[in-house]
Amino acid sequence: MIADGSCSGVQLDPKNGLQVQTVHFGQFSRMVPRLAASAGIRLFEVAPADESLGSVFAYLIES
Q: What's 6-54 look like in SS3?
């Protein structure tokens, strides 16, 4: 994900799980299910950490 430019950082947090900082949210959200399935990883939840109206709008117009 970092190699293709859709993410700028990844952090493993014991409390919150894997946290990924995206640069291109639309590209990232389309890629995650395919990567998880090909690696045999079961996703329980994928959710934005920042749910402000401004950030949601930015995600939507970026896609």
A: CEEEEEEECCCEEEEEECCHHHHHHHHHHHHHHHCCCCCCCCCCCCCHH
